UniProtKB/TrEMBL annotation:
<protein>
    <submittedName>
        <fullName>Sigma-70 family RNA polymerase sigma factor</fullName>
    </submittedName>
</protein>
<dbReference type="InterPro" id="IPR014284">
    <property type="entry name" value="RNA_pol_sigma-70_dom"/>
</dbReference>
<dbReference type="InterPro" id="IPR039425">
    <property type="entry name" value="RNA_pol_sigma-70-like"/>
</dbReference>
<keyword id="KW-0731">Sigma factor</keyword>
<feature type="domain" description="RNA polymerase sigma factor 70 region 4 type 2">
    <location>
        <begin position="121"/>
        <end position="173"/>
    </location>
</feature>
<feature type="domain" description="RNA polymerase sigma-70 region 2">
    <location>
        <begin position="24"/>
        <end position="91"/>
    </location>
</feature>
<dbReference type="Pfam" id="PF08281">
    <property type="entry name" value="Sigma70_r4_2"/>
</dbReference>
<keyword id="KW-0805">Transcription regulation</keyword>
<dbReference type="InterPro" id="IPR007627">
    <property type="entry name" value="RNA_pol_sigma70_r2"/>
</dbReference>
<dbReference type="Pfam" id="PF04542">
    <property type="entry name" value="Sigma70_r2"/>
</dbReference>
<keyword id="KW-0804">Transcription</keyword>
<dbReference type="InterPro" id="IPR013325">
    <property type="entry name" value="RNA_pol_sigma_r2"/>
</dbReference>
<dbReference type="InterPro" id="IPR013324">
    <property type="entry name" value="RNA_pol_sigma_r3/r4-like"/>
</dbReference>
<dbReference type="InterPro" id="IPR036388">
    <property type="entry name" value="WH-like_DNA-bd_sf"/>
</dbReference>
<dbReference type="InterPro" id="IPR013249">
    <property type="entry name" value="RNA_pol_sigma70_r4_t2"/>
</dbReference>
<comment type="similarity">
    <text>Belongs to the sigma-70 factor family. ECF subfamily.</text>
</comment>
Length: 179
């Protein structure tokens, strides 16, 4: 970066000269990108920082004074400060690890667990009111998933009798649960 040429370009940018801005970018972009990249250690972030650096240069070119220092130092300071600001804006790694443990628990909450246990107790109590063989048939049909025919064969009763047992047992269970 040549001092006098860069200072002249910055002065023209301060007047709103877009061609001077493009020329300034072409001459200083690689150096300022390397500053951002060295600090951020991520090319995508460094390129984003560089874009913001040039926005800042466009907006603040009028505040540059050649008497106060070299233009390359002024540009490098803007790039360095912007990259550091982006680095500070990053979440600390510890925050990322802590947030990883904030996963939703798929288990029911304690209230739902209590309601489910209470309903389970009520069902058990109502099942005790059924005749023993009817209660076993209901459990095997609706918990174990046995078919009517399999249950009829196990209990040695006709198929329609098993259907009647299960239907009447379910009606008794409903009445008991509604109390």
């Amino acid at each position: 970066m040549q001092g006098d040429g860069i200072a002249d370009l910055i002065g023209r940018v301060a007047l709103g000269d877009r061609r001077a801005f493009v020329a300034l970018y072409n001459q200083t972009g690689p150096k300022l990108l390397s500053i951002c990249l060295r600090i951020l250690k991520d090319r995508a972030e460094a390129e984003e920082a560089l874009q913001e650096v040039y926005i800042s240069i466009w907006q603040r070119a009028g505040s540059f004074s050649a008497a106060s220092g070299a233009p390359s130092v002024w540009l490098a300071a803007i790039a360095r400060n912007r990259a550091i600001d982006m680095l500070r804006a990053r979440k600390p790694i510890a925050d990322e690890l802590d947030s990883a443990y904030d996963l939703a628990d798929s288990a029911p909450d304690p209230e739902k667990q209590t309601v489910t246990k209470d309903e389970g107790r009520r069902i058990d109590t109502c099942m005790e009111e059924l005749e023993a063989d009817r209660a076993v048939a209901v459990k095997r049909a609706y918990v174990e998933g046995l078919s009517y025919q399999e249950l009829a064969d196990q209990f040695g009763v006709p198929l329609n009798t098993m259907r009647t047992w299960l239907r009447r047992s379910l009606l008794k269970l409903r009445e008991c649960m509604e109390r």
